[in-house]
Write a structure and sequence with these properties.
single chain, 231 residues, alpha/beta, Alpha/beta knot, 2 domains, five-stranded parallel sheet, two-stranded antiparallel sheet, 18% strand, binds ligand 4FN
């Protein structure tokens, strides 16, 4: 899977994307993350990438030319146009189901906005779909792009070393995780549920399944509904 990220802050990606599982996945050649600096494609002698909005208003808007030319640089020579995703508050909110779909792509181009936004003609012409990571105000699309890369990369075979455990991880079946404990068995007088120390694997699995269901029903009734529908 190749991610080409069009951004004004490529160094942010280099730092985050070489760490942890994404870094290892890149070393294994399973995932490639290229941060493309939109500013490298500006034709303006002052390397301008933004300008005042037509119609007035506060803030600046990202201009067409640098983004169009960065896009062309990434896609030139390719026989198929990769799927272009604009990380945007106006997009469909990212879910695990969408991540599974995206993980089947070979090559994704992610576009990150900044300032007050991007010129609409970029969206009309280049963008296939807008995806949001959630309803809150952010400074740019960079963190959302890293969130998308993280959740999609984990789904690529070979990226997660413990592939086996993935299947029983509760988010795989859409439920919240059961409570987790580790040593010591009693911490400052606080015990670990007996069942987990019993060694009865069938009972432990049953208890965990009940805990996942109960927690999801209580904390995320929306996910619980989804789960019941999917059963
Ligand atoms: C109603 C709501 C959602 C609170 C809202 C309404 C109006 C504006 C924003 C907002 O944050 N504008 C700033 C902006 N955000 C994002 O890029 C962004 C935000 C959230 C999730 C995202 N997922 O991907 C990208 C995301 C970064 C600078 C360039 C313009 C977009 C938010």
């Amino acid at each position: 899977m190749k991610f080409d990220v069009l951004t004004l802050f490529p160094e942010t990606f280099e730092l985050v994307m070489k760490e942890s599982i994404i870094g290892r996945a890149q070393e294994k050649g399973l995932v490639e993350v290229n941060a493309i600096d939109i500013r490298d494609y500006t034709k303006d002698k002052h390397r301008k990438v933004d300008d005042y909005p037509f119609g007035g208003g506060s803030g600046m808007v990202m201009m067409c030319q640098p983004v169009f030319d960065a896009f062309r640089a990434v896609t030139q020579g390719l026989d198929t146009k990769p799927r272009v995703i604009f990380m945007s508050p106006q997009g469909r909110v990212l879910t695990q189901k969408m991540a599974v779909e995206l993980s089947k792509e070979e090559h994704l181009i992610l576009l990150c906005g900044h300032y007050e936004g991007i010129d609409e003609r970029i969206i009309e012409e280049l963008v296939d779909e807008e995806i949001s990571i959630g309803d809150y105000v952010l400074t740019g699309g960079e963190l959302p792009a890293m969130v998308l890369i993280d959740c999609v990369s984990r789904l690529i075979p070979g990226v997660l070393s413990s592939e086996g455990s993935f299947s029983d991880e509760s988010h795989f079946n859409g439920l919240l995780e059961y409570p987790q404990y580790t040593r010591p068995a009693e911490y400052e007088g606080r015990p670990v549920p007996e069942i987990l120390l019993s060694g009865h694997h069938a009972n432990i699995q049953k208890w965990r399944a009940e805990q996942s269901l109960e927690r999801t029903r209580k904390k995320r009734p929306d996910l619980y509904e989804e789960y019941l529908k999917g059963k």
